Each structure stands twice: as C-alpha cells, then as structure tokens.
TrEMBL record:
Pfam families: Glyco_hydro_125
InterPro entries: 6-hairpin_glycosidase_sf, 6hp_glycosidase-like_sf, GH125
Organism: Promicromonospora alba
PANTHER family membership: MEIOTICALLY UP-REGULATED GENE 157 PROTEIN (PTHR31047)
GO terms assigned for molecular function: hydrolase activity
Protein name from the UniProt record: Glycoside hydrolase family 125 protein
Region (Disordered), start-end ranges: 117-138
Keywords (A to Z) from UniProt: Hydrolase
C-alpha cells in the first residue's frame, strides 16, 4: 500500500465510526483466528474508513475504489460489506453507510447507464462516444460502461441498511431510483430499440462495443441486456446470467421496500412482473448442457444460440450465486455449475505452484483473483476449505499487507493493483465468516 492506514483508535475526520465497536470485532477475530488474520482484518477495515470515504456537507459520502480516484457503484457497495455486521451497534457507522447510499442513488438518477463517477463535475476519467446522439458524457461520469450490477448493488445496500437498522432516511429518493432501475431493465429486455451505445477508440476490443456501439446482436429472452461485465470488460453475449440472477434478487428488494416503506403498489407490481420475466428467461435460456451433458448455468448467452461456459473473478459471478441470495449453496444446479467453473472446463480457471482459482480476461493470463478465492470460501459448505482459502489469501499478498486485484499462480510477487479496497473487503468478509462473526444474512 502507498501509506499506513489510521489506527483503530483514531477514526477518520467526521467520526465515521465508533472505534470501540471496530476494535471489539478485531479482538474477537484475534481470539478465534489468531494474530495474523486479525492484524490483516484490522489493517483492511481501518484503511477503508481512513482513506476511501469522503463525507460531504450535503449528507452524502464519496467512496474511491482504491488506486483509481473514482466511485464505482459496485465497488462502493462491496467495500462496505464487512461493516454491515457492525451498524446495529454503531450509529455513526450507520450514518456513514447511509451517506454512501444517498450518493449512489443520486448518481443513478444522474446517469443510470454509468458505472463509475467523479467527486464533482471534474471531467476526469474516460471521454467516450456514448448514448444518443453518441457525442459525449457528463463531466460527473468517470466511465459510462453499462453493467447490470451497477444498478443492483446500490439497491442491495439501501435495502440492507433498512433491514438491519430499520432506518429510512436514506430512502428519500428511493422511489425515483427504483422506478429508474425497473424501467431501464425493462427497456433493455429489447436492447435493439435502446438508445444506449458505447464506443471507445484506441483500446483493446474488451473496452468497447461492436456494431457502432450497440454490442453483439441478441434475441429476446426475457432477461435484461448488459454491455459490460462486472470486470468492465465487454460481454461476448448480451445476457450475463449471474447479473440477471442478481437483478432477480434485487427486484425482490424493490418489491419489499415499495410495499413496506414507500406504500407504492404500482412499483411493487412492476418489480414483481419484471422479476418473473427475468427469472423465467434464466431458467429457459441460461441453463444449458455442461461439459458432460449435465445442466449448468451459462455465464453468458445471446438468445440466438451463443453460449459461454465460463466464470469470471468479479462478482456477480456464477460462483457467487448463493452469496447474492439467488440459491442455496447446496442447490444441485449450483453445485454442478460450481464443479465446472472450479475446473479446467472454465477457461479462466488457473492452477499453479502457489494457488489455484478463478481469474479474468481483465487481467493477465494465469492470474487468480483473491476476490474469487474469498467468494469460493464464502459459498463453501466445508469449513476446512474456507480456512484454507483464508490462509491462501494471506500467503499470497507478496508481503505487502494488502489484498491485490490478481496475482500470478506461480509467483504471487507478480500482481495487479497495489490498492484495491474491494479485495480487502472480501478478505474481511471471509475472515468474519470463518470466525463465526458474519452476522448479517440476506433473505433468500
């Protein structure tokens, strides 16, 4: 890392959390898993609070992803995942997460197709040809790659905070946000009539969309289309199955909040109808024959016969389906899919002398993602496997004390991204699960 995180006794400016609550969690990890794991959890969680979150006077908070000074809607949710287990005991931390949620919701209303934002109209980031008429993007937007999960994760965070604490002050604009999400996902069921396009020049093919920015051709399936994966790489086929599964889960949250908080029966009904459409599309088009003919989930399909059997180190992924709330970890269709993607049948599964696990075309070949290792542990039904994966992540940090984006399976000293807060958070989630301290479980 580039600097030493603040110690737990010195909370960041603005009193983002109660240091005693966090110190108590670290002490419990130390008691159950030992000093090495506890020190890493302390370092990672303190770093998130000290260096990634900037509160603003308007009641929002901006969260950078790490060594890139932009706020990804996905990352800013997952970076906070281990802190959800503390908000019931720490009102200041709950206020911080509420502030992040408000910022996420404001960002969605500013541009629901964008995946990453600036902390103001600075014009930083990528300047791509996108949208209608395809001549630019807002200076508030760092990048406008449309991904399903960029809308799903903020809804998840808003719902989680309400479910844990009962508070609703972060939901003042949620009716607008939820309506925007439902309407966009409904429109993108028929992407050929959508106004969204995306083109980037002087870049790898994975950073732009073909067909004048429309992406590969798709047929109607009931699922909702995405231009890009959670890795920010272009989809090979337009229907990302784990992204659609996540949308189904999140539409359930929309329905719950619409009914119980907003008292909006129309929104609840629209969310339920879209949820049924997408789920039906997954069951009909997203379940395909595996390498031995057994039914498995595809990673992507196009409704025209195109099928990608794979998984990616980013989440939502097929590996993460139980963690997202789509299915149980012992669901037979999931376990068959899990066996496939944790094998050479997955083109992004790598094995070496230091590690084996799922990587991504977003990073160099034979690089495993610690996020995927953490998700493998979090979705495992075997406590021994969970502890082994926790120890593996610790053993492959190249002595930096940080969890990286990816590392080479034969040489962990060869890695990508020096500071990646999402990876730090997922390590903490696995540590808390292994210690029996991961107390919040999403409804399924």
């Amino acid at each position: 890392m580039t600097s030493t995180p603040a110690p737990l006794g010195a909370p960041a400016a603005g009193a983002l959390y109660d240091p005693d609550v966090l110190a108590g969690l670290v002490a419990a990890v130390r008691d159950r898993l030992g000093d090495r794991v506890a020190d890493a959890v302390e370092r990672c969680m303190a770093d998130t609070l000290a260096r990634t979150i900037t509160p603003h006077p308007d009641g929002t908070a901006f969260v950078i992803t790490g060594d890139i000074p932009a706020m990804w809607l996905r990352d800013s949710t997952t970076q906070l995942a281990p802190f959800l287990h503390l908000v019931g005991a720490d009102p200041r931390l709950a206020d911080t997460i509420a502030a992040v949620s408000r910022r996420q919701q404001d960002s969605i209303l500013h541009d629901p197709y964008a995946n990453a934002f600036n902390d103001g109209p600075t014009g930083a980031g990528h300047r791509d040809r996108t949208g209608e008429p395809g001549t630019g993007q807002s200076p508030w937007v760092w990048e406008r790659k449309y991904e399903i999960d960029s809308l799903a994760y903020p809804v998840q965070l808003a719902h989680d905070l309400w479910r844990i604490t009962g508070r609703t002050d972060h939901l003042a604009r949620f009716d607008e946000v939820a309506r925007t999400v439902v309407d966009l996902w409904r429109a993108e069921q028929r992407h050929e009539t959508s106004a969204y396009t995306f083109e980037r020049t002087d870049c790898p093919p994975s950073d732009t969309l073909v067909r004048d920015g429309r992406g590969p051709e798709v047929a109607f399936t009931g699922m909702t289309w995405a231009g890009f994966r959670p890795s920010d790489d272009a989809c090979r086929y337009g229907y990302n199955v784990p992204g659609n599964a996540f949308a189904v889960v999140v539409l359930g949250y929309v329905g719950t909040l619409a009914s119980e908080v907003l008292h909006d029966d129309v929104l609840a009904g629209d969310a339920a109808a879209l949820r049924a459409d997408i789920e039906r599309g997954i069951r009909v088009h997203g379940v395909v024959p595996g390498p031995a003919g057994e039914p498995v989930y595809a990673y992507e399909v196009d409704g025209r016969g195109g099928v990608l059997l794979a998984d990616d180190g980013n989440s939502p992924s097929l590996l993460s389906l139980p963690l997202l709330g789509w299915c149980a970890a012992d669901d037979p269709l999931y376990t068959a899919t899990r066996a496939m993607i944790l094998s050479d049948a997955n083109p992004y599964y790598y094995s070496g002398s230091a590690a084996s696990g799922i990587g991504s075309p977003h990073t160099p070949e034979r690089h495993v993602w610690p996020i995927a290792l953490a998700i493998q542990g979090l979705t495992s039904t075997d406590p021994d496997e969970r502890r082994e994966l926790l120890d593996l992540i610790l053993a492959t940090d190249a002595g930096t004390g940080a969890v990286h984006e990816s590392f080479h399976v034969d040489d962990p000293a060869t890695y990508t991204r020096e500071w990646f807060s999402w990876a730090n958070a997922m390590f903490c989630e696995l540590a808390l699960e292994t210690a029996g301290l991961r107390t919040y479980r999403r409804p399924r």
